[in-house]
């Protein structure tokens, strides 16, 4: 019933959908040069041979799939791979980082006519669906075309689980479209099964196998020379309400570490100027990276409101606080920091990475903090005690390595489906 109502709404609501998309275009949230792809019109010719289609919602999901993409293309030399995402930023990153025989397209808006156009042109031999973005029309029409579907790195957060339980018939129908589902953790597998998945298992989290974030070596060397031997720490992917806490921590720590430099990378770079105005008004001397202003000995807080430079700053700082975790929003991926030898701090709200966070605390490579006082105390500890900091970094590296075989396990699980596609006339 819910699926039928949803399908009818997306058919009859065509004018409203176009109005919504027009507004997104006006707000800079759609790629004007490739907008037709969002309507199911292909932006390229279909490559010959077997085509693997992998859908990932946005930046984090698509980056976590890079190791699997490379593995599949290496193991299946006659295949091509198409990655779909829905955001401009993820499209740019994929165009920069996808290997040969892989390419990017925007996912069509979930309207039946757009989806039919997309599937008719691309005719994928297998669809890999990353994490948890379940679009009913795309999933059911893909299954209706007899295209095998696999959920990889499936994640059902407690919040999503509560929502889906209110519409059990719809989520059960969608999950049964998948040949099998691979959850990130035992908790995700349990939730998938409770929601109606009949074949679910946990082979591990593909985020552990993601390649280290890239860096421009010249930029890294320039910053190292500019900052010199100043003590520093990094607060990354911060959200509204966290920057003020971080600035408060900086003020507390300056008494003990007078040369301290605090670096803030907001989750949304457009907030950079607002953060700058707010912290300057509160007495902090701030510099915005997007303006190209230099860091000087008088700079308290460096606001790195740029895109694609996390790899640079993770290599620069050994102490990292993961944002979106002092506010109840679920946290950000801490593995990117661990992979680049950082001691990690995070708040209590890491629901999106619950299993990872629990294991990190147990392994001794992260510390949970609960408020500004707690954060100041632990940052000061790590600044003052190099041995503790280095031990956390070693434990973090060992933790990542212990889980890195997951990409091979997932590729092996998918292999029989791809072998069948390769054998087809």
List the helices and strands and how they pair.
Elements: H1 2-12, H2 14-26, E1 50-55, H3 59-64, H4 66-75, E2 79-85, H5 88-97, E3 102-106, H6 112-122, E4 126-130, H7 136-144, E5 149-154, H8 158-165, H9 168-175, E6 180-183, H10 186-194, E7 200-202, H11 217-227, E8 232-238, H12 242-253, E9 261-266, H13 272-281, E10 286-288, E11 301-303, H14 310-316, E12 319-322, H15 335-339, E13 343-346, H16 354-363, E14 366-368, H17 372-384, H18 386-402, H19 406-423
Parallel strand pairs: 1-2, 1-4, 2-3, 4-5, 5-6, 6-7, 8-9, 8-12, 9-11, 10-11, 12-13, 13-14
Helix pairs in contact: 4-19, 6-7, 11-14, 12-17
Question: Mind explaining what this structure looks like?
Answer:
The protein is α/β, with parallel strands linked by helices. The protein contains 19 helices and 14 strands. The protein has helices spanning 2-12, 14-26, 59-64, 66-75, 88-97, 112-122, 136-144, 158-165, 168-175, 186-194, 217-227, 242-253, 272-281, 310-316, 335-339, 354-363, 372-384, 386-402, 406-423, and strands spanning 50-55, 79-85, 102-106, 126-130, 149-154, 180-183, 200-202, 232-238, 261-266, 286-288, 301-303, 319-322, 343-346, 366-368. Helix 15 links the parallel strand 12 (319-322) and strand 13. 44% of the residues are buried.
